[in-house]
Amino acid sequence: MSDRPLKLLLIDQDPIFRLGLRAALDTIPDLQVIAEVETDTSALQILAEIAKQDPKQVNLVVLELGNGRTTSQQLGLQFCRQLRALYPNLPILLFSSVQEQGILLAAKAIGVNGYCAKGIPFSELVVAMREVASGGSYWFVDSGSVNSQNSKLRTQNSSLPFAKIRNNLRLSGIGHIDATLAAVTAQLQVPGLPLLDRAILAGQRRELLASRWLLNKLLSSQQKRQEQQGQFIPDASPSISLSSAIASSEQIPSLLSPRALQSALFSSCVTKLQFPLQNVTVVPLEIEILREDKKRELLYLILQKLAEQLDDLRVSQIEINQLYEVKSTLLSDLWQAAITDFFGKFSRVRVGNEDIEIVKYLLQNTEIVQTDILNKIPLVVELFAYLLFQTELRIDNASYAPFSAEAKSQALMILENLLIQVANGVLQPLLNSLADVEAIKQSFYCRQLISTREIERFRNELSWKYRLNSYINEPKAIFESRYALFVIAPRGIAETSVYAPRNKELAQLSGIPLVVTLILEFRDAIAPRLRSLVSFLGSGIVFILTQIIGRGLGLIGRGILQGIGSVSLTEKNLRRNSDRPK
Asked: Response regulatory domain location, by residue (predicted)?
């Protein structure tokens, strides 16, 4: 094995298991857990960030085959395939509860380097990690059928009565802790929870997590090693660092998986979500009413839901031409998922004498939000096609190659606008119906917009914005063939615009919006002539004022001054003559 320390990324859906495993691994001097995540999307984001900073930070990935997103083992295999395609020389070790021989043989065929069943002694797990990280492979098989191709993978021997009792005791204790932990976590998610109660519940949750890890560690440490050493199958391929994998990917960009685009783009978006999120535009936004932390939480939540939606689309093997058909459904589903998770599926609020389920109440406004906000989000299909199929991005009258920096920059603007607009959609029904409910104000609103007067003023500004957009701003943008986008800048949420053909929308305009475009066209047509006429008239007026009236006034003034001078001189002479002695 190399002298370099073993640095690993841990992927598992169980936060308590990750906590316990990380605590145990931290006791190994030359072993370091760089990060531990719940989902495959988060793992790819972490790897993309690491590749930018120091590609040598990770030399092993340890994962549960389910990847935390669903219980489907096929999805886990798909993620392994994507990980192998993106980082072909990064070692992968399955540390999983999956024991089906067919699944594990498929994982090995994909290129997974090793497997350990959950429940093996900790020392054996460390041996497997070292072996896989060094460039080898480590698979556990039944000692009685090592040479058989169809042999079953070895599982922990629990034939001893004491082992069964101890295992039952451990599972019973963990079950009790899990039930209590779930109850405490549910209480923590109740909106408007007093600060003192929240602090107490958070402390109880930390104690339960520590108790579960301690129970696992103590009982596992008493377990004698029942198994023989796992079969070691040498691997001829040497260990290659993550930097080599990234370098290879940069040399052959066409071979990169579409997940590489998503991972890099989402990583950049997560970084920008750390910027201040105050609105620095002149356009009022629904999310302005949220506290900074709640605003950031909502945007990040929508990004997570979007990542899951993209994963589902990949699994469904959707075709690119079908994206236009399902666009409205995708945006509606994304909006509903964001509302459900942001407010809590079963959260209630008291309005008058009635208890209302917040999510159920807000989802009654689906059609309104779809019409006012979601259907007007631009370039959604282009963004999905870019992330799913590596299509060129045609924005601002130019085409950008999928892996170019320009394409990423344009896609990032579209993504940020999508997050902000969906977030506005999440808040719109709340502001329409439940804006002045005290429990909601205390849980979500910023201090500047918490009084009834300020809330009503803010709602009036939003109402005026919709009228202005509907009758003037949107027709003008269609006529000018551009889209206005809200983006996250270092100073806050800013506004920009990009060119895109909108001839079809222009042909569909009617009523006041059509009149607005005709007025703009008339203004553009008459403006040059009007400017010429005004310029001519202005020149004539200036000539008359300066050459005729000005000169005339000048001559008159000069005559008056001369006359005054003569009168004064005559008066002086008369006075002088009268003063002489007679």
From this structure: 7-133
